[in-house]
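Ticket #4471: structure output looks truncated?

Reporter: J.K.
Steps to reproduce: submitted the chain below (74 residues) through the standard prediction queue, then opened the result file.
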Amino acid sequence: MSLNNHLKEYRARIGVNQQELGAMVHVSRQTISLIERGDYSPSVTLALKLAGVFGVKVEDIFEYTDDGKDESNE
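Returned output as attached by the reporter:
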């Protein structure tokens, strides 16, 4: 399972750097960098704030992919 994102592309579209985007959603530049690299999954609240900045749905920025393993106890 992984959470892929298009945050860097959306950030480039509006012409802001990581520091500026972080300030817009009240997190550090480092947090934005970690999300873009895929090393950190944002909270629902942060994902919604980011989507709001770009005027898109969360699903437009973040996409969950399943590696095909069934983790249920069936």
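Triage note (M.O.): checked the attachment and the full token line is present. Residues 3 and 64 are 5 Å apart (CA to CA).
Status: closed, working as intended.
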